Amino acid sequence: MTDSTAGLARYQDPLTIQRVLHATRSIAIVGLSGNELRASNFVGYYLKRHGYQVVPVNPREQKILGETSYPSLSDVPVPIDLVNVFRAPDALPGIAREAVQIGAGALWCQFGVINEEGARIAEDAGLPVIMDRCLKVEHARYVGRMHWLGFNTQRITSVRSGLQ
């Protein structure tokens, strides 16, 4: 059962988002695609470039972004700090149960992945839950990598050269 977006504010708390980002080193991305044109691939690539250990979870792929892909969270052989979900909302309760089972530190649900039952499963086990937010966007916002055009220019100035 997918809930409407009403009541999502509790899953989008900026302080919770910042705590999760700063406590995370390893990220299992459930639904990570090997297709470079998919949002999940772009997010995984971005996270790897920013020093996170990215663990693909996709039963249809052998390797993604140069990393071994696992069929399920239960098959991942390393500790996971954060489970990032790129799947349909109705898959979230099962993914949340697996995240709890493997001892993940938090559950992050990308844009449109909204399921109150899945969130409740994770919360009842003590996992922070972020829902309907993009991990890449929030990382860029809170770690200071966001520029007014949406990318990091490596310049520290308020003057926009070349713009008249």
TrEMBL record:
Q: InterPro entries this protein is in?
A: CoA-bd (IPR003781), NAD(P)-bd_dom_sf (IPR036291)
Give the organism the record lists: Nonomuraea salmonea
Domain CoA-binding: start-end pairs: 20-113
Q: What is this protein called?
A: CoA-binding protein
